[in-house]
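Here is one chain, start to finish.
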Amino acid sequence: MATQSLQACLLAPPADVTEVEMDIPPQGLALIDLEPGQTAVIERIYLPSADAHFLMRIGFFPGAQVRFCRRAPLGDPSIYSVDGTHIALRSETARHILVRSAEPDDFEPVGERS
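Its structure:
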């Protein structure tokens, strides 16, 4: 009986997930679409709130600059650089992060803003 309860908990979707949160607008560039070395700015995160908040705590928030570094040998996960930290994200997560393409020269170091 305990095994069935544990299995049900593991298979049940999180309480705060809604279909609206998981839908990605038809237009837009996703983080997964970047090429190695390409830099972008995060526009919006379309993930359940718990996942989105976790990503925001590690630097993936709207307005942040992100650079695609490389893919793992088998294609998943991919390595991204945010605020000088390298973070691996699975493609399923990266496809729910919308970005706009940008050049690295478009950004100032944080300490040098006026």
